[in-house]
Amino acid sequence: MNTYLNNKSLLFAAKQLSKIDGDLSTLFTTDGVPPLWARRPGFATLIKIILEQQVSLSSAKATNDKLHKNIKPFTPTRFFELGISNLRKLGVTRQKSSYCINLAVAFTNGKFSFTSLNKLDDLSARKILMQIKGVGPWTADIYLLMALRRPDIWPMGDIALAKSIKKVKRLKALPSYEQQLRVAKMWRPYRSVAARMLWQHYINSKL
Questions:
Q1: Which of 191, 31, 42 is nearest to 114 (CA)?
Q2: What CA dihedral angle connects 20, 28, 33 and 189, to 10 degrees?
Q3: pTM higher than 0.90, yes or no?
Q4: pLDDT at 1 (0 to 100)
């Protein structure tokens, strides 16, 4: 079984990061312990993360709330029954409607199991998730970070983290993913906690 973050280990990791990185120490002093932002593992959470791809969190939340209001029960089988056309009527883009149906199909045909992911290491779990069309690196990483609460995940392609690192590390331009990985190397094995600290700073600073 893989280790996962809870409030106690989150606090411990944030303190450890503060000892090895002066910039994160400043964030810890000014912003405090970041939220755990834990999400319940399963189909509904992965649907929400798909909706969050490349849009604001408020926009994704509005669409997600509408789906939950109109789709009962909120299950893969029900999504499969509704199909793309009905999801489109509920405000989901054609592309993301297709992704949602792909996820529902993967779940209903037995090729994918959420419970089995917990038994896999980070790379293996990420690879399994990304076999589903529509679940790219960022989506898989966010699921591992927030739903499975893995302690050492660095999300690929997260613009908020890029902006926050640029400010905190006083960079001239937004860092690429490869540049972020080099910066984040010192934060291992708690990169997920560093990400939470930087997200919290992004929100507080309204970057």
A1: 42
A2: -20
A3: yes
A4: 42
| Opening angle at CA 124, ends 120 and 127, nearest 5 | 135
Token pair listed for 74: 């909120």
Instruction: Name the percent of the chain lying above pLDDT 70.
Output: 99
- pLDDT (average), residues 124-131: 95
Query: Tens of pLDDT along 6-63?
Result: 999 999 999 999 999 999 999 999 999 999 999 999 999 999 999 999 999 899 999 9
- The tokens describing 67, both together, are 């789906």
**pLDDT tier at 2, thresholds 50, 70, 90:** low
* Long-range contact pairs involving 109-115 (C-beta distance under 8 Å, separation at least 24): 114/41, 114/42, 114/43
What are the residues whose beta carbons fall under 8 Å from the beta carbon of 63, sequence distance 6 or more? 51, 90, 91, 92
